[in-house]
């Protein structure tokens, strides 16, 4: 079994375990955990999209590259600042640790899951159909 599959499974089990614990014991932080799990998965997709877009920059003119990074930073930096100042710094410190852990676990899980799914879809395309 690949190390990435093991990391994906561990991240998934940590995330599901924390969510289950939050909902079973009816903790106040359960909605924060769920929201940050989703944000983490969304950030993983965003990171994969940006990495894929950067790979496609080969052969493009320098103006296209500058505009791409200007737009990326123009949206990314203000959002990052807002998220840090208005969400994380104003959040109750009792919820902060678990929420950030769920954010990271969601990113790790979705990054590896996307690679796993892509590999499975590509291998399914290569196999001859029995029709």
From TrEMBL:
Q: Which UniProt keywords apply?
A: Membrane, Transmembrane, Transmembrane helix
Q: What is the organism of origin for this protein?
A: Planococcus glaciei
| Protein name, per record | MFS transporter permease
Q: Report the superkingdom from the record.
A: Bacteria
Transmembrane intervals: 5-25, 31-50, 62-83, 95-117
């Amino acid at each position: 079994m690949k190390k990435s599959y093991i990391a994906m499974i561990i991240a998934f089990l940590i995330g599901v375990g924390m969510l289950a614990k939050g909902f079973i014991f009816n903790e106040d932080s359960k909605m924060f955990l769920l929201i940050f799990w989703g944000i983490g998965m969304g950030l993983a997709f965003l990171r994969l999209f940006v990495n894929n877009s950067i790979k496609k920059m080969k052969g493009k003119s320098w103006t296209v590259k500058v505009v791409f990074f200007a737009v990326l930073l123009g949206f990314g930096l203000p959002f990052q600042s807002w998220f840090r100042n208005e969400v994380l710094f104003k959040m109750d410190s009792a919820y902060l640790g678990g929420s950030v852990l769920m954010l990271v676990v969601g990113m790790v899980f979705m990054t590896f899951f996307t690679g796993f799914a892509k590999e499975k879809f590509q291998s399914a395309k290569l196999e001859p159909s029995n029709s």
